[in-house]
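Let us work through a complete example step by step.
Step 1: write down the sequence.
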Amino acid sequence: MASDNNTEKKGVLSAGLAALAAAAVTPQVHAAPKPKAPGETKIVAVMAHDTNHNGVTQEYYMRTIFESKKDWRLIFARASSLFTPELIGDADLLVTARTGIADPIDLTADPLADSMREGAQLWTDENVKAIINNIRNRGMGFLALHCTIYSRNRDITDLLGIEPIMHNEVQPIWVRDTNQDHPITQGIGRFFINLDEQFAVVIKSEYSTTLFETTAMHDKRNAVGGWCLENGKGRIVGLLPGHTADPYRLPEYQEIVWRAAHWAMRRDIPPYPKAGKSI
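Step 2: predict the structure and record it as tokens.
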């Protein structure tokens, strides 16, 4: 009988270990965010987690810039697979910094990984249709950062009203010619970014307003660095600095991001509470 009991216990133990092992390799099930509360501002962000951009840095600084907005809820989809049309169905603002490639690593896979699995693509036909619909027909704001211009999706490029130009090497950059007639950049002067990648665009939409230009120190190239426009009921802001962490540390750029988010949502723009302070 003792032998039978031991055999039974070993069987139970083996089954338990097998279940734990199976759980360890089963992708996590992610619950949908809680519904938007009355009076709450919902911001959905999909930042870069690829081999060229640091999504951790981007999320950290975005959250830090807006941490004083206690009624704003920032939801970061840390993998493209977590982004759905339902997620932005009641969002006030969408923020993206994503190219047109699939996520090199699926960050929703095993929490302890001994292998690498490629992730999903953000700019699917379904997602793009939902983004455009929410902007044009519902009035959702759109803040398109840095590498969003390389979505490799014609509909998104047309939505932004631009044509991307090949970028330069990482180098020191001046932000200059800030538009003193627009509330996003009014009162902000020229400032210096120690290291960044100078993306550039050709403005195609007659409804676009240039916010600032940049000058690359090594290449001596001048380029549009920020612009905004209205599309249907929505407002769009494109800001190209942000390949490195350096722009996000600067109080001038933080304030531009702060103002751009408010403007895109058609909100009054209060003074940036950290104006003049690096974070």
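Step 3: interpret the result. The longest strand covers residues 222-231.
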